[in-house]
Amino acid sequence: MSTTATDTPKQKSHDKSATHALTDGFHLIIDALKLNGINTIYGVPGIPITDFGRLAQAEGMRVISFRHEQHAGNAAAIAGYLTQKPGICLTVSAPGFLNGLTALANATTNCFPMILISGSSEREIVDLQQGDYEEMDQLAVSRPHCKAAFRVLHAQDIGIGVARAIRAACSGRPGGVYLDLPAKLFGQVMDAEAGRRSLVKVVDPAPRQLPAPDAVARALDVLRGARRPLIILGKGAAYARADEDIRALVEKSGIPYLPMSMAKGLLPDDHPLSAGAARSLALKESDVVMMIGARLNWLLSHGRGKTWGTEPKKFIQIDIDPEEMDSNVGIAAPLVGDIASCVSALLDGMDGNWAAPPAEWTGAIREKVETNVAKMAPKLRNNNIPMDFHAALGALRTIVKERPDAILVNEGANTLDFARSIIDMYQPRKRLDVGTWGVMGIGMGFAVAAAIETGKPVLAVEGDSAFGFSGMEIETICRYNLPVCVVVFNNNGIYRGTDVNPSGGRDVATTVFVKDSRYDKMMEAFGGVGVYATTPDELTRAVNEAMDSGKPTLINAVIDENAGTESGRIGNLNPQSAVSKK
Fold it and tell me: In 3-state terms, what secondary structure has residue 507?
């Protein structure tokens, strides 16, 4: 957008009647984003970016204001995952920037395309450390925590700066990018037509990267030699949107697959080749493992140890980043390229005589799945009061099956771990959770962005501890009247509500919360619907009503405070004291 202004007195001396169209940094940033199809901004207003938010809204962009920058950043990150375009988070300088930095680092770790845009102090003041308002060298601080970082100092460079940020966020392995905009930049003025010409529409920001034919042939040879093959699907496979080809690869090969949590639903969890309910058996007994969009990080025990059994394994890994190969164990068949191209090449290379894995292997997986599902079923149908995790999640499992198009957001310790294995998914990119870092606090930011970006109803299943990190954002949910139903599993504490202070002192134990907290009343305070549920039937009824109505709802689901386990299923990561005090 340009503005028309009269010449300065000096200019008038040359041509007293001349007028010309001008634009400024504010409008150039907005125009650069819109030119690249980015029409939503998540952020928190404040100096020096308050007017930017107002002007962006006036120009037709959707500007979603949060109560804390970290949650705005989480929203931007998951928006990037859901849309394959970088989500935009806008923050103020220094403290606001630092609040958003956690989300930026998390986005980079999880390979979500995101751009954190922050106002900042002027370079000449920062470099001399003269004590400006919220002074910080934000560019230097950001660099270790993101994929790329840029600073724009001149209005004529805004187009290039935004374009570089978009390409860096989307190309290769996606990730977070920081864009530093000093306060003085926003008000810089230039000729509107020159400004328009300076903008850049990014062409093909995530170009295909085709795998080498010999690498494809090698991977197929390794697969052909397998007796007990396994495919592991990661969230990178879900992000790639190669859904039909991935399903075709699984079904044509006849290989059992194990989805990581955010890859659940790429194929329905009740698919006959799903090994989700036989995870331990599949990992231990497999001899060849092909990873598609998954990494051998801590979530897969780094590819070694008792999780993987004693038999040697061969790994095939599909990843766009060649440096990921051999990061934990040797990769027998590295397949470097974008996932869609690699999977397509594998399909093309499977001849008509492709042999399915031995029935002994697929039958063993299927038998274990059916045994474990049958063993779990009675636990999911119990009517204990107060509820345990199995009963509550059993109720939600049925609702998700009946509403496969809804988005499930999930975080917590026990709430997360149990939900991963209990709640089946039937469509891709419908499960959003804590991801690679296992970081708490993503819940409300993810829920807001999921509702904004997809228009679908959102079910956010939260542990009471996890909810505490971002709970104030239920006001944001109410303010924008979003179709989000939050279920808080309230067991009075972190892991459990039963710990006691070992010293016998007056303070409660470090993991214990206020007993019988009424989180539902918080939602009512902001105009949403609050429900107190103590049984699976009450929980089922409340969630269905919320999903049908589309009204912002919070259900306080009372869970037995004895039901939790220490650190969920990763208690082994807790170091133990080697010294006992007598």
Answer: coil
Region 476-493: what's the mean pLDDT? 98
Query: Which stretches of 350-429 are DSSP H helices?
Result: 359-380, 389-402, 414-422
Contact predicate 86/38, CB 8 Å: yes
Phi, psi of 190 (to 5 degrees): -150, 170
Q: Is 452 helix (H, G, I), strand (E, B) or coil?
A: helix
424 and 450 Cβ atoms separated by less than 8 Å:
no
Dihedral (C-alpha) 461, 465, 467, 472: value to the nearest 10 degrees? Answer: 170
Which segments of the chain belong to CATH 3.40.50.970? 3-198, 381-558
What is 381-558's CATH number, 3.20.20.370, 3.40.50.970, 3.30.70.1130, 2.60.120.260? Answer: 3.40.50.970
Helices within 171-309 (DSSP H only): 183-186, 192-198, 213-224, 235-240, 243-253, 279-285
What is the spatial distance between Cα 410 and Cα 493, in angstroms, rounded to a whole number?
Answer: 17
Q: Which DSSP category does 512 fall into? A: B
- pLDDT at res. 130: 84
Please compute, for residue 51, the number of CA atoms within 13 A of its CA located in the half-sphere on the CB side.
9
Looking at the chain, how many residues does it have?
A: 582
Chain position carrying tokens 């109720």: 395
Q: Per-residue confidence at 580, pLDDT binned at 50, 70, 90?
A: low
User: 19-24 and 3-6: which strand pairing?
Assistant: antiparallel
With H, G, I as helix, E, B as strand and everything else as coil, classify residue 510: coil
Q: What percentage of the chain has pLDDT greater than the value 70?
A: 95
Q: Sheet containing 176-182: which strands, arranged edge to edge?
A: 62-65, 40-43, 87-91, 114-120, 176-182, 148-151
Instruction: Please tell me the class of the 3-198 domain.
Output: alpha beta
Query: For the domain with range 213-366, which CATH number is right: 3.40.50.720, 3.40.50.1220, 3.30.360.10, 3.40.190.120?
Result: 3.40.50.1220
Q: Is the dihedral of CA 121, 126, 131, 134 positive or negative?
A: positive
Does an H or E element contain 307, and which? none
**Both structure tokens of 328:** 């934990």
Residues of the chain with CATH 3.40.50.1220: 213-366
Rounded to whole angstroms, the Cα distance separating 291 from 317 reads 5
The tokens describing 499, both together, are 């710990």
Using one digit for the tens of pLDDT, what is the confidence trace for 137-186?
999 999 999 999 999 999 999 999 999 999 999 999 999 999 999 999 99
Q: Report how far apart, in Å, the C-alpha atoms of 508 and of each of 218, 280, 559, 567, 576 are.
A: 59, 38, 20, 19, 22
Tens-place pLDDT, residues 210-234: 999 999 999 999 999 999 999 999 9
Q: Torsions phi, psi of 270, nearest 5?
A: -95, 15
